Amino acid sequence: MPKPSRSSRARTRGPGGRPARYRTRVLRGFQKMLADLAIDVVQVEASMRRVPSRELSLQDFTGYLGPMGYHLFGLYAMQRSYRGMPVLGRIDPVFISTPVMESNIRT
Asked: Is residue 33 one of the residues assigned to a domain?
């Protein structure tokens, strides 16, 4: 059996555009591994819209992953329009675990 990967990508849009409750179940499925800091890097897709949305926001992910020891590392794949408006609609934030952050401190 292959060794499990230490990284995870939990997309916020499930198959068929499933609602947020489905997408949060994906992260909760990793809860023990996340709490144990057994995952080094987590990449998700987040909404940047301030209006209520079926998608989880960057703040939702930061609020969930932060207390478990994950830190925002970078923002990727930025969608810079929403319904024709020049606004940031969606991003792929990447979070790193505290051990990864501490092992890469530059002195």
From this structure: yes
Residue at 1 is within a domain: no
**Burial class of residue 10 (count of CB atoms within 10 Å of its CB; 0-12, 13-18, 19+):** buried
Q: Provide the pLDDT for residue 32.
A: 94
Overall domain count for the chain? 1
* In the block, residue with structure tokens 């992910």: 61
What domain range includes position 56? Answer: 7-101
* 8-state DSSP, 4: P
A 10 A CB-CB count for 61 gives: 21
> What pLDDT digit, counting tens, does each position of 49-75 carry?
776 667 788 998 999 999 999 999 999
Q: At residue 33, does pLDDT exceed 50? A: yes
Place of tokens 């609609």: 89
